[in-house]
Amino acid sequence: MKKILYIILSLFTASSALANQPKDWQLGFQDPASDGMRDIVNFHNNLLLPIIIAISVFVLFLMVYACIRFRASRNPNPSKTTHNVTVEILWTLIPCLILIVMAVPSFKILYKQDTIPKADVTVKAIGYQWYWGYEYPDENIIFESYMIETKDLKENQPRLLAVDNEVVVPVNKVIKVLITANDVLHAWALPSFGVKRDAVPGRINETWFKAEKVGTYYGQCSELCGIKHAFMPITVRVVSEEDYAEWLMGAKIKFAKEPLLENENIKLASN
Ligand SMILES: [Cu+2]
Q: Tens of pLDDT along 30-80?
């Protein structure tokens, strides 16, 4: 039984072995790129999936058994039994126990996600109909991030996921994300980091992640927000600390929120 479970589990996990973006015919999660997502994947693969499979197999067995054993030809006089105290207690208690077994690790993960460590970089994501706006509040940076149309895609840019201005963050640093919206509900979701938070007009939600690998990660707005809901993807590029410093230098000029004083401009440019 254990062996079969492992084979089924490996089927689910192998399909997602490569990705920080969705793959054709993918069944399982995208590869985790943060501690939080690893917790979620382990919780799902090692606890939830075996329980779900066991319950499904058990119920299927009961149904098949009842269909064969109690078919009309073999069992012409049906039993009139209506109550059985022992069975009723069991089918109440056992599901309760199963739920408790699942709830304990689930709450642990939730609380871990909810406790935001001291942030190294803060990014503010603002949902608009239908694109994302980003701000680096500590860096005087603000920009908009639009999906790239299919006809304009460059090589290696995935359709419906690549954007013109990516969020750039350093690797192995705590990134705090403030999330809000300007018009309707949106949701900022990035599967590889195990992050998904509603963007609510007039309210700021927050979450965090710490990316462990350099790379480009894709997510999507995950709250139905109107006709172009499917066309406001999220791209986060995780880079080394040096590359981040370099990007920051350029971005401070290109995406300056407040106009820079002339000497600041010269100082940044000469760097
Ligand atoms: Cu949206």
A: 889 999 999 999 999 999 999 999 999 999 999 999 999 999 999 888 888
CA angle 58, 60, 65 (to 5 degrees): 95
pTM: 0.80
Q: 99 by DSSP, 3-state: which?
A: helix
| Distance from residue 265's CA to the centre of ligand 1 (Å) | 35
- Ligand 1 centroid vs 262 CA: distance in angstroms? 38
Please give the DSSP secondary-structure letter assigned to residue 231: G
The neighbourhood of ligand 1, an ion, using CB within 5 A, equals: 186, 221, 225
Q: Ligand 1 mean position to 12 CA, how many Å?
A: 29
With residue 244 as reference, give the H or E element that holds it: helix 241-254
Sequence-ordered alpha helix ranges (H) in 33-156: 35-43, 49-69, 85-114
Cα 55 to ligand 1 centroid, rounded to whole Å: 36
Classified as helix, coil or strand, 60 is helix
